[in-house]
Amino acid sequence: MNLKLEGRRCLVTGASAGIGASIVESLAREGARVVATARRSDALDKFADSIERVGHHRPVTIAGDITEADEVKRIAKEAAAAIGDIEILVNCAGGSRPLPIDASEEAWEESFSLNFTQVRRMTGEVLPAMRRARWGRIINITGIMEPRGINGAIAAKAAVHLWAKGLSRDVAREGITVNNVPPGRIESEQIARMYPPKERSEFVDANVPIGYFGEPSDLAPLVVFLASPISRYITGTVIPVDGGMTYFGAA
Predict the structure, then answer these.
(1) Which residues are registered as beta bridge partners of 11?
(2) What distance lies between CA 134 and its chain's CA centroid?
(3) Are 176 and 129 in contact (CB under 8 A)?
(4) Dist. CA 90–CA 22, nearest whole Å
(5) How much is the pLDDT for 250?
(6) Whole-structure pTM over 0.70, yes or no?
(7) Domains and CATH numbers, the chain
(8) Mean pLDDT of the chain
């Protein structure tokens, strides 16, 4: 299937490893021009080199901390200067934030800054160009909606889902789609820390019908499809990639 992404201009956050890196690689394989941003400049550059070595367009790399409003503006501006107005935004940066019942205000603010506010801000930076062009794709990598305890990231990602649904309705007639992809347990540095072998086996047996944790490459194809022109009638959705872990329709 031709996804018609050749030359499309993309920005992917949280792109130095794991799901973000797999999405960048998959977009580059389709011929898209990609800006990859994350905090770790060395990891970004090493990853970009590996994509170039296999014959794909080398992603432009921009290091920065997207929890800072000024950094979001800088990254968006440098991305547009490097490849032109951004047509496809993948908000992938984020992280789990388990919190105690009496968590501090600072802990909650950090959780929402990383998992909600930066998504809204980065979208706000690239959306005007999409509206002028009357075409755009916004895909948010979010999280499960069935918490097993208090987690600041889950609350923030729930906010992303509802904000994105509202936005999808406001911009649908301008050719812009907005969708959310909540991963289940996808292999990453964070997952490796959270689930040593014994805990992993127990969690899979209790919660993952398919019987194993996913790989970033299990999620990236869906994102690439949602980024393509042929997905034009899909918007305002929440589509889990979780091996059947979700019990009910995601919020």
Answers:
(1) 35, 89
(2) 22
(3) no
(4) 12
(5) 41
(6) yes
(7) 9-231 (3.40.50.720)
(8) 93
